[in-house]
Design a protein that fits this description.
single chain, alpha/beta, four-stranded mixed sheet, 11 helices, about 35% helix
């Protein structure tokens, strides 16, 4: 079993994910938002790369059963119901509904994983649930690729730290797993944050940008480790909560 991490500086190639268990990380904020929406009863989130694709798909669906969510450069897309703040996706607003979703980084990373054996979406809020799901899916025999969404083709510190947490968790379950260079780097990056991810609010560039833009509460929510223990599977181009006990 091999484990590697793509840190977000280059596009994901088909060979990077083919027949592997894949995890996409977008701590700030898409994976956190997806976890909160699904925990609050959304039926599914359907990610799209572009605003136009998302809006077009929403027009084909029953308007009572669908909501549009997404952002560009941190800001809600004009005409959309929600931005990318996890606090917006309440049970009252998304319960029983499907969310069409597009973000600057996270949804692009997700749509690059087609061809994977299975794929999961995570941040800090559902890290342990994701580790458990990945370990069950890989079973010690299938290779694992962890994809950091990053920030516009740059490494995002918060995603790399979260990747290191996942690598550490997988190695706990499978001590003989072979680590690629990206996985070893992620482990090293994560070490100063093992006791608390909260320091990333000041250390991570994207966190500081969000705080400056008025999203400090979002940053705090996104760095709350295991606060939304929902494993999220990306399958058939949809994000859904993984039922307990299923891999």
């Amino acid at each position: 079993m091999k484990v590697d991490v793509l840190l977000g500086e280059a596009p994901v190639a088909p060979a990077d994910v083919a027949d592997r268990v894949v995890v996409v990380i977008d701590v700030l904020r898409a994976a956190t938002t997806a976890a909160c929406a699904l925990a609050n009863g959304a039926r599914a989130l359907i990610p799209f790369e572009t605003v136009e694709e998302a809006a077009q798909r929403a027009r084909t669906m029953d308007q009572e059963s669908v909501r549009l969510g997404g952002e560009r450069r941190m800001v809600r897309i004009p005409g959309f119901d929600f931005g990318n703040s996890p606090r917006e996706y309440t049970a009252t607003l998304v319960g029983g509904r499907t969310v069409i979703f597009t973000t600057t980084n996270g949804t692009l990373a997700l749509t690059s994983t087609h061809g994977a054996r299975s794929c999961f979406f995570t941040g800090f809020v559902n890290a342990q649930a994701t580790i458990d799901a990945v370990c069950a899916a890989a079973a010690g025999t299938t290779d694992v690729t962890i994809v950091c969404a990053g920030t516009e083709r740059h490494i995002a510190l918060e995603d790399a730290v979260c990747a290191g947490r996942l690598v550490r968790g997988i190695r706990t379950a499978f001590p003989n797993a072979q680590l690629g260079d990206g996985a070893r780097l992620a482990e090293m990056i994560e070490r100063p944050y093992q006791e608390s991810a909260a320091a990333l609010a000041s250390d991570a560039t994207h966190a500081r940008s969000l705080i400056t833009a008025g999203f400090e509460d979002d940053v705090i929510a996104c760095l709350a480790v295991d606060s939304v223990p929902v494993a999220i599977r990306y399958s058939d181009r949809q994000l859904r909560a993984l039922p307990a006990g299923e891999d």
